[in-house]
Amino acid sequence: MQEISWILLLEIAYTLVVIATCLRIIYDTNSTSKTLAYLMLTVFFPILGIIIYFCVGTNYRKRKLYSKKIVNNELMQRHIKKQIFRESEKTWNTVPAELLKYQKLVKLLLNDGMSNLSGNNKIEILKNGEEKFPAVLEAIRQAKHHIHIEYYIYEDDEIGNQIKAVLMEKARAGVQVRLIYDDFGSRSIRKKVVPELISAGVQAYPFYKILFIALANRINYRNHRKIIVIDGCIAFTGGINVSDRYINSSKRPGQLYWRDTHVKITGPGIFYLQYLFICDWNFCADEELIPQRDFFLADQKQQGNAVMQIAASGPDSDNPTILFSLIQAIGMAEKEILITTPYFIPGETLLDALVVAALSGIKVVLLLPGKSDSRMVSAAGKSYYGDLMSAGVEIYEYQKGFIHAKTMVSDEQLSVIGTANMDNRSFELNFEVNSVIYDSHTAQQMTKTFYQDLEDAQKIDPKEWEKRPLYKQFPEKLSRLFSPLL
């Protein structure tokens, strides 16, 4: 009898835990699809589901990891905000007539993230590591005051050690060098590269350091940004991490071809990237970095003709700003939308935006990987193909290698180049950053590059796709059920 009573008590306790978890999920999760996914996990796989939810399902927007304010004085904060809006309005008055249709997108990024609109920027598109890294190394060698670097993946390999050597040289010469590396993505540099950098005078800190007790949760919220800011004048951002895999070289026969896109920005468009770096630094470093004039030295005079903003979001933002900016940009397109992304799980909101655009007569083309490094993510993405193609969206799968670029081009006028994939992880969990460039010259260059990439891709035939056997469709349908969690 005593044994039976203990079993009964355990069953009651277990049932109460499941009910409490379900109530917590309903209360704490804003997204209906994520709520249903977590409830399904908890009910059908109770122990596993509860573990997964408490590891990765916490509503971070209710429990921000940190505040993005770098000025704690509220009066000063309001003054800075007024100045940003005033300068942005002044810049907006210089925008070419054909770009005035993007006013709502400009206002969205101003109101949601206080991202300044800046003009007179020079934009250089860098394809793959073989174009990016020489430009980065040259810019670092020219640094006189400071070098700020923030990366998701920094590898202990050939290019990683080349950059390390130059950073150490500049630090010994008196240049302020600060490095933020993601503690999960850049784990290969913890034991050797980081101590060597520190010994040379480089300040280096891991972002959201992984601790054993909080391992799963901290792996979930990663800093996926790739930012370099030099002397407050030049910046680099985009999809390319510091790793040899991004360099396509004849010296590495048999290496998988990596297709990616980065951007070099010269001008005041770098200011918001510098702001993001300072915020991230103050979160993870032992010292507080006070904003100073030398960090924002980009010449306001003519560097180029590009007008731009930065879209950034993560567990520090009130809203999924990057997702909102993409939806707004898609809704403002009039002729053509060209999207490249390595991971595509759009969710219902972005899916609807793309379908509405296609049904409205706008040409929508997606370029996705032919082979992915994640079978489940790939399967979940493929589950959306039928809905998209039935609305008229064209889908191509890249065949030459692995396409890792995260870009969007609209009407040969607007370009988005950044770190964010089109999936829930980038929109909801990771720290991400995108450049939003209102410039016809840049957009025309990006459009040309997109169609060149299509030459190495295979178009998905909608009729053939519908005929696929059920055993191929089932893993995709199953993966889609869990897509809010991927």
UniProtKB/TrEMBL annotation:
Domain PLD phosphodiesterase: 219-246, 399-426
Signal sequence interval, chain numbering: none
Keywords: Cell membrane, Lipid biosynthesis, Lipid metabolism, Membrane, Phospholipid biosynthesis, Phospholipid metabolism, Repeat, Transferase, Transmembrane, Transmembrane helix
Its membrane topology: Multi-pass membrane protein
Record-linked Gene3D superfamilies: Endonuclease Chain A (3.30.870.10)
This enzyme's EC code(s): 2.7.8.-
Catalytic residue list: H224, K226, D231, H404, K406, D411
Pfam families recorded: PLDc_2, PLDc_N
Claim: Cell membrane is one of the keywords in the record: yes
Entry keyword annotation includes Repeat: yes
One GO location term (cellular component): plasma membrane
Catalytic activity: 2 a 1,2-diacyl-sn-glycero-3-phospho-(1'-sn-glycerol) = a cardiolipin + glycerol
Highest rank taxon of the organism: Bacteria
Family under the similarity heading: Belongs to the phospholipase D family. Cardiolipin synthase subfamily.
Name of the protein this chain belongs to: Cardiolipin synthase
Naturally occurring in which organism (per UniProt): Pedobacter cryoconitis
